[in-house]
Amino acid sequence: MSERKKFKVTYSTLASPDPLLHQYYDEAVADAKANFGKIYPLFINGEERFAAKTFAKHSPVNLDWVMGHFQYGSEQDVNDAVAAAKAAFPAWSGRPWQERVEIMRKAADLISDRLFEMGANMSLEIGKNRLEALGDVEETADLIRYNCDAVAKNNNFNFQLLSESEKHHNRSVLKPYGVWAVISPFNFPGALAGGPAGAALIAGNTVILKPATDTPLTAWFLTECFRDAGVPAGVFNFITGSGRVVGQTLIDHPDVAGITFTGSYDVGMHIIRTFAQGRYPRPVIAEMGGKNPTIVSKKADLDKAAMGVMRSAFGLQGQKCSACSRVYVHADVKETFMSKLLDLTRQINVGDPTIKENWMGPVANKGAFEDYQKFVADLRAAGEIVHGGETLQIEGLDGYYAAPTIVDHLPLDHYLWKHEMFLPIVTVTDFEELDDAMAMANDVEYGLTAGFFSEDDAEVQWWLDNIEAGVLYVNRASGATTGAWPGYQSFGGWKGSGSTGKAAGSFYYIQQYMHEQSQTIVD
Ligand code: UN1
Predict the structure, then answer these.
(1) Helix then strand then coil, % of the chain, to nearest 5
(2) Cβ < 6 A, ligand 1 pocket
(3) Is 459 part of the annotated catalytic residue set?
(4) pLDDT mean across residues, the chain
(5) Please, what are the domains in the chain?
């Protein structure tokens, strides 16, 4: 067989892919289906383990498809994994950083090698369309590479300090904390599991990964990549199961030294509060959602604005913390903007996301599907649904399909202007003064991403100076508020969107997995 072509996918190169990319993906979907129904283990101390109970992972694309049977990890499994990770910490953290970086670069390459297999399974696992699924896999590998580079460029953050005299030798070093827990969400099952786990490992911590119950399979593939790259037994552990048992046991465990959580505000705040009950403070890197606004000025290019909003409101069915869920558009241009947004939205095909023509797949699970119906009822009662607002039957599939939904004339004091829905629903209103739009945009508990459309430089600068969010995009048609890529955009939230003020995929991320030590030696 001839050598297969290698692809480098990013979210911004998704538009014009090679036909071969589609062929490889289609083949991988067939393989993924042939593998339905397998039994997957926990991975603790380098060994596969099977629990007393398992759960079936059904595809939201078609509930008849059981992608696999996964273990319900118990409290004992968590305790054993923490003990294994604690025992493995001295050797792993004691290795030269170059060795950890070498192993993790290999892990990133193994993830890239499995791009199509992991992408196809991810589409089926969580309903992500083919290009976004491939993007997520490659983003995972790139986050790991970025953090390897960060350590390598900075000599593992080992710096000389000023010294009082020639006899003083003063340095600052960063050292890992110990056992690190990663609790990852369903929406980016690669990047938001492998990114943080990779950073923790590169920094020299040992890790326990607890993936979202909806996305155990992608996390299992990551586990295989770490194992196959040579991450030693006990250094990386994988436990599936419920948040109530596995997640809570990890959070409560006194030997867990730090945690990365990505998910809802409520759970994130619960973790931060629980962690604060310990004997001393421990780091929590929490990324907790968004209610991301886009402001469209009367000086905007409305084609760019409509495209950017459509892509960010409805990509991955609106289930991104970075999704655009609120639009403030100048009254003078609202009608034109709305008609362009409607035109684009009407062209979206919803269905099996492994099929090339379908840009939207199902929502993640029953809870999301029910939420959609409840929110739509509330929105219909208070405002006007100008597009969507209904669940969809797709022939031959029993899945959680919901139409992209645009809402107008929702009273500004309605709770859904502030509550994160995490669904393909966007609310739009008009404004007369840019200052009023800014006040509304900032009047939420969240501050993750934000978009602005204007062709006027002074307006752009004003927006950059005043918007309260961690990730800003101006005039970005490929995504008004979504689509950060490691090294191209840092990604982290302000206010209720993030706990540390430092973002992923940029200069200050991996340092959060280490504490600083000053070392003064006097001759
Ligand atoms: C998330 O929305 O949950 O910027 C994470 C983006 C992706 C990551 C989003 N790189 O849209």
Answers:
(1) 40, 25, 35
(2) 187-188, 320-322, 482-484, 491
(3) no
(4) 96
(5) 20-288+501-522 (3.40.605.10), 292-484 (3.40.309.10)
